[in-house]
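PROTEIN DATA CARD
Card holder: tRNA(Met) cytidine acetate ligase
Chain length: 399
Origin: Planococcus halocryophilus
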Amino acid sequence: MKAVGIIVEYNPLHNGHLHHAQQARAESGADLVVAVMSGQFLQRGEPAFVDKWTRTQMALDAGIDLVIELPYIYATAQASDFAKGGVALLDAIGCESFCFGSEQGQIAPFLNSLQLLTEHAAEYQAFIHEAIQTGISYPKSLNNAYLALTGGQPGFADLTQPNNILGFHYLEAAQRLSSSIKPLTIQRIGANFHDPITVGLPIASATGIREAFFKGNSVEELSTYMPESSISSLKKAEKEYGKFGSWEQFYPLLRFTILREGPENLKLYAEVTEGIENLIYQSAKTADSFEIFMSLVKSKRYTRTRIQRMLTHIYTGFTWQTLHSFQLPSYIRLLGMSEIGKSYLNHKKKNISLPLISRAADLSDSMGKLDIHATTMYLQGMESVHLKKEFTTPPIYRG
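Structure generated from the sequence above:
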């Protein structure tokens, strides 16, 4: 059986995601689709809109055959580490290929860019270091260094586009892992990464869908942009929690944590650097909402995403020391499967290179315990009474 892998967040799963999954299967000729999905906190440094079990159900209903969890350390990391964790898990579970959506739409430019940056690695890093010293952000420094090497010539991937950037890091991760997994890409269609929803268009970004909801749209009013099964799952989640995940919802707990820790402790948390802990602390003293807080902290040097990742780590208690203790995923956490997915696991189980775990009780190492803790903190932020849900929820089966 041939498997194609995709790396996703499904926050929430919309029509563009459905198109991606269908095209990944078609382009690869695979028998099944495996999704590595972020858990309760996401790559942009945010609590998930709905919990990972709700999103697993969305994935299975949309035709995904296996859903496995991307551990917290990778799910909340910068693009290169996010990609490393995702590709490593797809490789470990035996996927022959992986497919990502991109603004580029063709794989050749990514291969050309990877070759260029591999051959000129020292020069590239020198450009980045020089740019950072001028005070501009890290993403901007990367782009300046890349443009200096390519000279704007055609034939290379446009790494100013968010999905292209992530796609490049997927290829880079596969190369560094010495993986034989084959990269594929499809053209991203419809809305761009951060676009608001557009009335009359069936494909919107997840960001646009969330923003529309928080501006007062009901779940039903957003049904144009999502499969019916996703709408059904969102309604169930809304009934269970009475709310959806956002930093505004989590802010009282985040603010309490910041003020309790103080600047000396804040600097111990992952990604908190260069004295920003003082600004974070002082801003929390003043701001009574998350958006006001962010307006006080955000600067040209730090993107909103980077600041939010700092805040995620502060909220969950994830330190620099813990971050540096991990290298690669140590297990595969199964969240859900179809009948085909179940057959695949039975067929491949002797060749899967990492332990396959279906119960939280078996997450005995430090990476697994961190995932359990992150879920507890997420459920606390959602004011759930079911703080043991991690231990009571089995993998979801869709026959």
